[in-house]
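Q: What structure does this chain adopt?
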Amino acid sequence: MQVQQENKPYDDINVTPMLDLAYVLLLIFIIMTTAAVQGIEVNLPKASAAASMSQPQMRAISIDNQGQVYLDTIPVTLPELESRIAQIKATVPDFPVVIKADQAVQYARVMDVLDLLRRVGVQQVGLVSQRPAAS
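A:
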């Protein structure tokens, strides 16, 4: 019977402790970096209250449950809406529009507004919805 020698050199490298150390250092680095980003409190200068000329004004088109269309908060008919959007597009060619419609409104009314925006040439259109309630 042959007995193995206890002084035999170990030829495999165990990388588990090295990886554990790397993960701990990475975690510490992430925590310290996010803590350092907050910085110190400084007294910042005040900006002017005037609207920025570089960012276009978003327009909201709302449709209530009776089918009445509103541009921002002003009630308009579809021809009035088309002329007002065309006027806005002439001054600001690339402005976003969001459409908010009541869930009881007929789908055709929303499609009329979307078709009108396509005819005028509005490229950025968004549809507003409500987040579902958390269960």
